[in-house]
Design brief:
The chain is mainly α. Helix content is 67%, strand content 0%. It has one domain (6-43). The chain has two helices and no strands.
Amino acid sequence: MRSVSRMDVEIYTFLKKKHNIKQEVKKMAYSERELLARIVQCEAGGERGQPV
């Protein structure tokens, strides 16, 4: 059985952080419809940081 090196731990930690960042971006992502609605609302002068 192979022992776990420090490099293995660092790679695992890096990949886990990268995965977590991707999950956060997916949570924040707008659909095309939501994004278009926000752009139209902003152009109409109604953007106040409120959900669409």
